[in-house]
């Protein structure tokens, strides 16, 4: 029988660690790209049961330990000031996000679901280091990462505040990234969506940037379908 991702987890984790330590140009980026493909595959597989653990001689929850280790290594790599590595890490999680069934976002049980990410506080802490830095491009990438991690980032009051604050940035790329992150969380948290809608109304009626207006308009479909939100969204769209 072909080995499952859970059975390969330790090997994958070690390979990634070695590649990141080598400091060879391009090798780390290639290793990150490779682990991205593996994470997509892993996310599609059901969690192993007792029979699978026994078949591959695994300790119970061993796969979760190594999946969380892999995620933490990627977050550590993102924290350091290397543009190419940061882009590679973001692409890993964007690819995983876009591989999901968007119509079943709340039912997602993949490798980045809150139930399977045990060290989410440590992951978010590393991204906040970048988000609190002075480089707007890096902050934009950090916001995109938070959007990809919405399933476990949505409950953090600090993360919510940082996303809302970034909506008022003077840097276009950062505002677009914060809209993306907010849109991802809106699909999972109705209370967040209510607050975000009020802010979005203000942004779209005050900005002259067509790019920001377009980015904001795309979010309305993800805000939920309660009567109050639908009514507010309708009134906003009458302005344009």
Short description:
With 240 residues, the protein is an all-alpha fold. 70% of the residues lie in helices and 0% in strands.
Structure description:
This protein has 240 residues and is mainly alpha-helical. The protein has a domain at 5-170. Helix content is 70%, strand content 0%. It has 13 helices and no strands. It has helices spanning 5-22, 27-44, 50-55, 62-79, 83-98, 120-131, 136-148, 150-153, 157-166, 172-186, 190-206, 210-219, 227-237. It is globular, with a radius of gyration of 19 Å. The termini are far apart.
Overall form: globular
Q: Count the strands?
A: 0
Structural class: mainly alpha
Question: What percent of residues are in strands?
Answer: under 5%
Low-confidence stretches: none
Distance between the termini: 58 Å
Largest sheet: none
Number of helices: 13
What does the oligomeric state look like here? single chain
SSE string, helix = H, strand = E? HHHHHHHHHHHHH
Descriptive terms for the model:
240 residues; mainly alpha; 70% helix; globular; ARM-type_fold; Integrator complex subunit 7 N-terminal domain-containing protein; INTS7; INTS7_N
Q: Secondary-structure map with pairings?
A:
Elements: H1 5-22, H2 27-44, H3 50-55, H4 62-79, H5 83-98, H6 120-131, H7 136-148, H8 150-153, H9 157-166, H10 172-186, H11 190-206, H12 210-219, H13 227-237
Helix pairs in contact: 1-2, 1-4, 2-5, 4-5, 4-6, 5-7, 6-7, 7-10, 9-10, 10-11, 10-12, 11-13
